[in-house]
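Q: what sequence does this backbone want?
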């Protein structure tokens, strides 16, 4: 009986817990450093550079950081950077936001996108790196 109760409780916890990013945080850090860090900053001392800082980007409204001057296209995009919009944007930025100033051809490897999202989600808005947290849904 104890085993059945434990199984029911663990099943309930698993089903009620939001899904974590499927990617690898360490691999995502490598993707970030190779593809993103030339224009974006992340972490405690992050600030706008050639692109906006990315602390707390997951779940954030587009074009809202105060230390970056966004393109008119990004200002009018009215997106929330959740899992789906970030995946689409990372795959084809100019398709998701025509007129964006972001100079990036896109990332077609789903595994690298998942890794990057796993890494980005470890940085909340304050920029202090945290443990992995769940990605907000649509």
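A:
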């Amino acid at each position: 009986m104890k085993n059945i109760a434990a199984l029911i409780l663990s099943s309930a916890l698993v089903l009620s817990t939001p899904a974590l990013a499927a990617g690898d945080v360490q691999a995502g850090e490598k993707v970030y450093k190779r593809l993103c860090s030339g224009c974006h900053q992340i972490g405690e001392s992050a600030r706008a550079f050639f692109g906006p800082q990315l602390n707390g980007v997951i779940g954030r409204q587009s074009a809202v950081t105060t230390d970056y001057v966004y393109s008119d296209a990004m200002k009018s995009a009215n997106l929330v950077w959740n899992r789906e919009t970030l995946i689409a944007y990372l795959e084809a930025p100019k398709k998701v936001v025509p007129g964006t100033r972001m100079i990036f051809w896109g990332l077609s490897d789903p595994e690298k996108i998942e890794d990057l999202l796993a890494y980005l989600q470890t940085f909340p808005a304050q920029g202090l790196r945290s443990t992995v947290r769940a990605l907000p849904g649509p």
